[in-house]
Amino acid sequence: MENLYPIYLKLAGQLCLVVGGGKVAERKVGSLLECGARVRLVSPAVTSQIEEWANQGKLELRQRQYQTGDLEGAFLVFAATNQEKVNRRVSEECLSRNLAVNVVDDPPRCNFFVPSVIRRGKLSIAISTSGASPALAAKIRRQLERQFGPEYEEFMEILADLRRQVLAGEADIQQRKQIFSHLVESDILDLLRKKKYDQVKERIQNAYRGNRS
């Protein structure tokens, strides 16, 4: 298989179709909703969680068998049924329309794969084996989860806030780079782990004022 091109998609407001109503489909829907996607789900039977989301108006539920018209307006598609024939049909119809489609546990019928992801606020780390071994991707994710703990979420919030301040108040590009580099190379992450917030504040002030002076 050719190398895959890694990419992050903005799904807010985009219509995503999920065909299937079991636990796998439920996980796909949950991830899509987290990204602000509009979700259309087609399946004769669904899990209680999917039904709850539908009742809450979080997704459009078409509780019946898949039909070609369900693809109308879709940005990307997941085929997650336990029926190989249905999954194959969804894949073929998507590919003929140049739609992005992922068929669960059937790499040859996909034109995109969903990586195993670690999220720490604004930080996300994706691991992909190009569909060759989801189990290995999951193992690597668990290893990285221990390395990149919850303090990274706090650090990302600090960096994002300071970045806005620096971009608004510092015109010199080299000065900006020095400030950001100083912060990233500092011991702030270790201080966040130890919840030494006064020292964190001190490091931030030093990075900003010191590089501006």
UniProtKB/TrEMBL annotation:
<keyword id="KW-0627">Porphyrin biosynthesis</keyword>
<keyword id="KW-0520">NAD</keyword>
<feature type="domain" description="Siroheme synthase central">
    <location>
        <begin position="120"/>
        <end position="147"/>
    </location>
</feature>
<dbReference type="InterPro" id="IPR028281">
    <property type="entry name" value="Sirohaem_synthase_central"/>
</dbReference>
<dbReference type="GO" id="GO:0043115">
    <property type="term" value="F:precorrin-2 dehydrogenase activity"/>
</dbReference>
<protein>
    <recommendedName>
        <fullName>precorrin-2 dehydrogenase</fullName>
        <ecNumber>1.3.1.76</ecNumber>
    </recommendedName>
</protein>
<dbReference type="GO" id="GO:0019354">
    <property type="term" value="P:siroheme biosynthetic process"/>
</dbReference>
<dbReference type="GO" id="GO:0004325">
    <property type="term" value="F:ferrochelatase activity"/>
</dbReference>
<keyword id="KW-0560">Oxidoreductase</keyword>
<dbReference type="Pfam" id="PF13241">
    <property type="entry name" value="NAD_binding_7"/>
</dbReference>
<dbReference type="Pfam" id="PF14824">
    <property type="entry name" value="Sirohm_synth_M"/>
</dbReference>
<dbReference type="InterPro" id="IPR006367">
    <property type="entry name" value="Sirohaem_synthase_N"/>
</dbReference>
<dbReference type="InterPro" id="IPR042518">
    <property type="entry name" value="SirC_C"/>
</dbReference>
<dbReference type="InterPro" id="IPR028161">
    <property type="entry name" value="Met8-like"/>
</dbReference>
<comment type="pathway">
    <text>Porphyrin-containing compound metabolism; siroheme biosynthesis; sirohydrochlorin from precorrin-2: step 1/1.</text>
</comment>
<dbReference type="InterPro" id="IPR036291">
    <property type="entry name" value="NAD(P)-bd_dom_sf"/>
</dbReference>
